[in-house]
Amino acid sequence: ILVRYLGEETDKCSLSGAVSMCNPFNLVIADEDFHKGFNNIYDRALANSLRAIFKKHALLFEGLDGEYDIPKAANAKTVRDFDEGLTREFHLVSGQ
């Protein structure tokens, strides 16, 4: 999101500098690799963290209609589960 913002805003950007590391250039390949070997442990740990943050702010999602799968995000075992439940749908719905 940061890199896209910087690219689109260029001279109008109010930031004087930014750093973005480890950006996947091919999201399909990056997603596939995320589910191999040691990355499985990282995937589950990151999903646990996302789920914990999500649950702290659960009241914000009460009554939220649309394509979101709130239970899937709240019970995500993997980052893909969380993404399918909330993040991906947010960007599809909001047009981002």
TrEMBL record:
Superkingdom to which the source organism belongs: Eukaryota
InterPro entries found in the cross-reference section: AB_hydrolase_4_sf
Gene Ontology MF annotations: monoacylglycerol lipase activity; short-chain carboxylesterase activity
Protein name as catalogued: Uncharacterized protein
